[in-house]
Amino acid sequence: MADDARSEPAPLRWLDAATQALNVAGSLLILALMMLVGADVAGRNLAGAPISGVPELVTLSIVAIVFLQAPQALRSGRFTQTEAILSRLRRATPRMARAVETGFDVIAIGVIGVIVYATWPLFMRAWIRKDFIGAVGDFTAPTWPVKATILIGGTMLVLQFAARILRRYRAS
Known about the structure:
Strand content: under 5%
Largest sheet: 2 strands, antiparallel
């Protein structure tokens, strides 16, 4: 596998490195979230004092984690898909299977592209208006970082789908 990675063009290696960095960031966010929830539960049960904003941070973090880790899930072949038809198609007509998989990838690029496109104005509004979640005087958190994560993670996912198409046809 290491030889395969070195034989790929530099842009694909850079894409994979950036994708892995996002995945690590998502894992660190999961760890931080687990520690925060644990501290909140302990605070509630031991001191009767919950940590303000934990539900809001969990809500924001789940979206961020999905968009941080989805590109690596796709890259490593762990993205959800049904294999029932494709495995039969690969055995019977490999070229048709490649065409079908490519069609699915192109559709995915379109869908994720629409999500990224639709998120841009939401990000800009959150940035300019300083949108936040929470209650003033208790806990507030800006929403723009999650919108930025959707933009970055979604763009990386689109690039990984495109790279998957490229790799599929380079391998054949």
